[in-house]
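Subject: Protein record for review, amino acid sequence with backbone structure tokens
Why sent: The fold of this protein is of interest and is recorded here as tokens.
Enclosed: The protein record, placed directly beneath this head.
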Amino acid sequence: MADFSLEDLKTLRERLGTGMVETKNALVEAGGDLDKATELLRLRGAKSNAKRSDRSTSEGLIAAQSAGSATTIIELACETDFVAKGDKFVALGEAVIAAVASAGASTVEEGLAATAGSATVADLISDEAAILGEKIELRRLAKLEGDSFEIYMHRTNKDLPPQVGVVVAYTGDDAETARGIAQHISFAAPSYLSREDVPAEDVENERRIVEEISRGEGKPDAALPKIVEGRLGAFFKQVSLLDQDYARDNKLSIAKVAEAAGITVTGFARFKVGA
């Protein structure tokens, strides 16, 4: 029999979260060498990860963390809600967001290359995917820079980690209003900060569509410009944060709410798991 103890078996299982049989077999093959057995199990896990590469990941979590004058938000995705709500996956999310925020990563590629202890974030995710037996990926990452930040995390299910996350960057001192705006964003899902940020081709496409609709409804040509502009205004309320009616008081726009509170929203990011 290979030279290893029950304590070695326990240590390796706790380190990697692997099953009893596969851990024992790895120790036997490694002659009781814990480091070699760890390497064997990681390599086998990597092969399993490769087989899972084409699977879809519609579950997961959102996490965010501030570091200096920036705040980073990520979506860490997995295959099932069973894994998503587990302690190991949640702990992985905490480790990943800490690493990418500390590194100042602004893209997924930079995030995966960030250092996490003695490995990279990519290695960390790969190792955990091998343990949990699911495809896990860092799907999205955004970094906002600014003077102040408000982070809001929303749970759509009490058993799951946050499924919607919002970061608002702003100037001013009214953190309560900034939080209210972050909560509004989680619900209203705007795509842009202001109407000026909406791509011109999107505006023109919407203008063409509403004009065709208006003509099809038999609206008189003389009235078309005013009708089209009115419907474009409704479009901007859908996609532009500052144009939207505030969720807590629909008589006020977000722009008016921010102005009254003496704050200026300079940017935001909203992630929803699987969206």
Observations:
- The two ends are 52 Å apart (CA to CA).
